[in-house]
Specification:
single chain, about 290 residues, alpha+beta, 2 domains, 7 helices, about 55% helix, disordered C terminus
């Protein structure tokens, strides 16, 4: 696949011009790291995903790294949603089967799945770099011109902070200052990381700050994830620990967690049909 000019916002590379059987083609950063073929005769990188169909019934694809990323994110998001719903409606008779003492362990377990998925996404972006497609497989590295890589890196850091804050929430007898330092602070910073990562993912797709392309599946993925990040941010702010030891807005905090988790579950699920195109060009090498 001959490569020609590279393009992107500012110093970043988000798409390259290619040649496919003598025709002009477009390969985007997101498509390359998802191991999807370049698109022939695309008028622009934003048009490269238009008109593609996806196999919505292809739910089992364990040979693909993207499938594992999706499944692990879905499990983590489901656990966060369960914990958030149980905490939002503690007196609901239909939720009594979940022991209230298990809410924090459920969140901690969910954070582990989030981190596992986030690292695999980091690995995917690291080794699917549109600015440097050569070389051997690496487990760690630096790709500053790749927005997909930067999004994955920042999100991975955010998940590590969620590991910290949900793990610290299991510690007994913390006073309000300790809760603020060990639980609320890493939670808030982690939420900020998720917001930044979501914006970087939007820029990678849009090749600028934002683009409105609801006819494309990838657009829904990045936008739904941004909505999830916003709801997590609302939850993080509402979780501020007061000097009395009380949470600033506990219902809003728990509902924001549950709502954000539902968004992340949906966004993760959409990763599966995204990699199952039914009428794309021949598979790109690599």
């Amino acid at each position: 696949m001959p490569r020609h000019a590279a393009h992107g916002p500012g110093p970043f590379i988000t798409w390259v011009e290619t040649e496919i059987d003598g025709r002009r083609g477009v390969q985007t950063s997101r498509r390359l790291r998802k191991r999807l073929a370049p698109i022939a005769n695309a008028a622009s990188p934003l048009d490269a995903g238009a008109g593609l169909r996806h196999d919505w019934l292809q739910l089992w694809a364990p040979a693909r790294l993207g499938w594992w990323i999706a499944v692990l994110f879905m499990v983590g998001a489901a656990l966060f949603a369960i914990g958030g719903v149980r905490a939002t409606w503690p007196d609901d008779a239909g939720l009594k089967w979940i022991d209230a003492r298990m809410i924090n362990p459920i969140f901690f377990a969910g954070s582990i799945f989030f981190t596992s998925a986030a690292y695999l996404q980091f690995y995917e972006a690291l080794n699917g770099d549109i600015s440097n497609t050569g070389g051997t497989r690496r487990f760690f590295g630096w790709r500053p011109r790749n927005l997909g890589y930067l999004a994955a890196l920042v999100q991975f850091i955010g998940t590590l902070l969620f590991n910290l804050n949900t793990g610290d929430a299991l510690l007994p007898g913390l006073d309000w200052k300790q809760q603020e330092l060990l639980i609320w602070s890493p939670d808030l910073i982690g939420c900020i990381c998720f917001l930044v990562a979501s914006q970087l993912a939007i820029m990678e797709f849009a090749h600028r700050w934002f683009a409105f392309r609801p006819e494309q599946l990838a657009w829904w993925i990045v936008v739904v994830n941004m909505l999830g990040s916003i709801l997590f941010m609302v939850s993080g702010i509402a979780s501020f620990v007061m000097p009395t030891g009380a949470i600033l807005a506990p219902t809003l905090a728990n509902a924001g967690t549950a709502g954000g988790a539902v968004c992340f579950f949906l966004g993760a699920y959409l990763l599966i049909p995204e990699q199952s195109e039914t009428d794309a060009s021949p598979q790109a090498p690599g």
